[in-house]
Amino acid sequence: MRPTSDRPMRLGILPAAGKADRWGGYPKELLPISNTHTFLSRSVESLLQCGCDLVMVVTNPAKIHLHAYHLRDWDRVLFSIQQGDEMWAAMTTALDTPADEYYFMMPDTFLPDRPFPPTVERDFGLGVFLTDQPERFGVFRGNEIVNKQPSSTPGLAWGVLAWKKLVADYWRTNAYSDYTSAINGAIREYSFSQWHLDYYYDMGSMDHYAEFLLNRHEVSNVLDLDSPLVEVLGRASRG
Prior knowledge:
Elements: E1 10-15, H1 39-49, E2 54-59, H2 64-70, E3 77-81, H3 86-95, E4 101-105, E5 109-110, E6 124-131, E7 138-141, E8 144-147, E9 155-164, H4 165-172, H5 179-189, E10 192-196, E11 201-202, H6 206-215, H7 217-220, H8 228-237
Parallel strand pairs: 1-2, 1-4, 2-3, 6-10
Antiparallel strand pairs: 4-9, 5-11, 6-9, 7-8
């Protein structure tokens, strides 16, 4: 599918092939955030609102039918089986689909409705947020990303990525072993931009999910905070 105007073809990417070991195998991207949305469906909506012509859910054989069922009412969504392990494999799987621009975000996160600017001017771009938990994220240290390293110093972590065909071609022809090395390669080789994300919530554990539900004003008007689910999660987060 090509855009009907002269605008470049834009592909959204959601890496959803993970095994969710910390969740006992439960697909955390399908956790509810309201009566109408899961994290996955809200991520699809965000990418479409940001101008993506197609959204690719990178999944695995055990989850593809589940993902397809939960997104059955959404148009312009396609599914691709991840080739290999870890997130870099999800990124390279998506590179097999030709596009002019690629927008990448995690499907188990909650961030602003439009996490990308109207136009990413540079060849490579990162949406960043301030974190005091650098051990959970990839954080800028100097002119490169350092991934999940404990530190007492807060830092700017990347939350979403955008790259153009030039970077996609570069990644296809250079052998990187992991996504952090690939991101740092793009930062070194190409002009890049940053934009600020007002908030970024990652569902790394049940405690993170419970904290998110109990404290986020963005969902308080669409979620029944007296529901049994929230009550159980509240007890879990309090230990």
